[in-house]
Design brief:
Low-confidence stretches: 1-59, 65-76
CATH topology of the largest domain: Tachylectin-2, Chain A
CATH class of the largest domain: Mainly Beta
CATH architecture of the largest domain: 5 Propeller
Length: 430
């Protein structure tokens, strides 16, 4: 038994409640101040009480003095355990614009479902989710920026287009790839997910940035591969597969440094689907370690989707952005129905989430597992203009004040009734 005191980002534990009288001349065990944190690592001893006290001290006085020292030296407000899981972040909208309809090298610019930033060239890459119906699957190179003096969007330029190519070097044909998620790696390659639709199973691939050539196709667990069994379907449901993809922040070691990749399904797998509309669905989240020589799937977790709005026909996880090495992310969820688009941004904390890789079906097991924790960061319904079909999201360059930029793009579905919106925010982490 003990008492915990919070001081800043640390939790101090006083292990002294069962001590009646302590003799700190060595004849009794010395109580310790222990610090624990959200990483659940083994506690580390900060200082022993024997370094402060000598002689016989009553339990009540010991606890009172230690509590007074800790609380008065901190002078910080107490926070709930829930708040301690998440980063203190804020988002300020800087600007919104609409990209005009245009063509580049004979391809229609549209269906932009993923966005990633290249700090080496100060360029962005935007992935089109065209399945080869209008042109081969491809990504565009964009020049985007914010003017230093006004913090508004600078003129936008599309610098070129790169076709994705299969193992033979040929551009993909129609319905061979359903590109949705994309992230730039430190080895100058693009990791891209193919969501998974009829006659085209989900994929996690790596492509050369310069040529679009397929480099590696990663194996996905069998439980994600669709099996059309009327009695017992399993795997990705049509067009509800791997839409979200992100890499953890990388240091300066470049291609020699292992990095982590995270991807998640837009909605529940067929075997995890709950037909009760009053119950929110649960997606699955994969965590890979990517090494120069060998890569491995480390774990899988349950991601709880927000309950879909009444009348929604589409609801799911659209994109992820990794914020740090400590398991914090931003997640973009989007729904569409009679009321138009509903888009929300959540902060995630993955620490402590149960590894679900050994659980065949999530629905009966949800009460006994710990899912990824989430906290609402922004509801786009509170902003203007009215939001369109936001699907792409990435961190961009820093602003002159040192704060981070967050960029989002909408997928116009190549429809004249929709637009390609570009939103840019100031992201402040403290």
């Amino acid at each position: 038994m003990g008492r915990a005191v919070y001081c800043g980002d640390s939790e101090f534990y006083i292990d002294a409640l069962d001590l009646e009288i302590m003799n700190f001349n060595g004849s009794s065990e010395i109580p310790e101040l222990i610090r624990t944190d959200a990483t659940s690592q083994p506690p580390s001893v900060l200082v022993t009480a024997g370094q402060f006290f000598q002689g016989k001290v009553l339990r009540g006085w010991l606890i009172a003095i230690l509590l007074w020292v800790l609380t008065t030296s901190c002078a910080l407000p107490q926070v709930s355990a829930e708040d301690r899981l998440f980063l203190d972040l804020s988002l300020d909208l800087l600007d919104v614009t609409t990209l005009p309809t245009q063509t580049v090298d004979g391809t229609t610019v549209g269906g932009l479902s993923a966005l990633t930033y290249d700090p080496q060239t100060n360029r962005f890459y935007a992935l089109s989710d065209d399945r080869g119906n209008l042109a081969p699957p491809r990504f565009y190179t964009l020049s985007l920026g914010v003017t230093p003096d006004t913090a508004q969007l600078a003129p936008i330029a599309i610098d070129g287009v790169t076709l994705l190519r299969d193992e033979t070097g040929e551009a993909y044909g129609a319905d061979q790839l359903d590109p949705e998620g994309m992230a730039l790696s430190p080895r100058r390659s693009l990791f891209i997910t193919s969501e998974g639709v009829a006659d085209s199973p989900p994929q996690l691939n790596e492509y050369d940035l310069a040529t679009g050539q397929l480099l590696t196709q990663f194996r996905l667990p069998d439980r994600y591969l669709p099996v059309s069994d009327i009695e017992d379907p399993t795997g990705i449901r049509n067009n509800l597969g791997f839409e979200a993809l992100t890499l953890n922040p990388i240091s300066a070691f470049g291609e020699l440094e292992p990095f982590r990749l995270f991807t998640a399904t837009e909605s529940a797998l067929a075997q995890d689907f709950d037909e009760d509309p009053a119950q929110p669905l649960t997606s699955r989240w994969l965590h890979y370690l990517i090494n120069p020589e060998q890569s491995a799937l480390l774990s899988e977790h349950a991601y709880p989707l927000a309950l879909e709005p009444f009348g929604a026909v589409v609801n799911g996880l659209s994109e992820l952005v990794s914020l740090d090495q400590g398991g914090h992310f931003l997640a973009l969820e989007r729904a569409f129905g009679a009321g138009g688009f509903s888009v929300k941004l959540f902060q995630l904390a993955t620490g402590g989430a149960t590894d679900t890789s050994g659980i065949a079906r999530l629905v009966p097991a949800l009460d006994s597992i710990s899912p990824i924790r989430k906290q609402l960061a922004l509801d786009f319904a509170t902003l203007e203009p009215a939001v369109d079909n936001l699907e792409a999201m990435t961190l961009g360059p820093q602003l002159p004040d040192g704060s981070q930029t967050l960029w989002l793009l909408s997928d116009d579905n190549f429809s004249e009734a929709q637009t390609t919106q570009l939103w840019v925010f100031r992201l402040i982490l403290s």
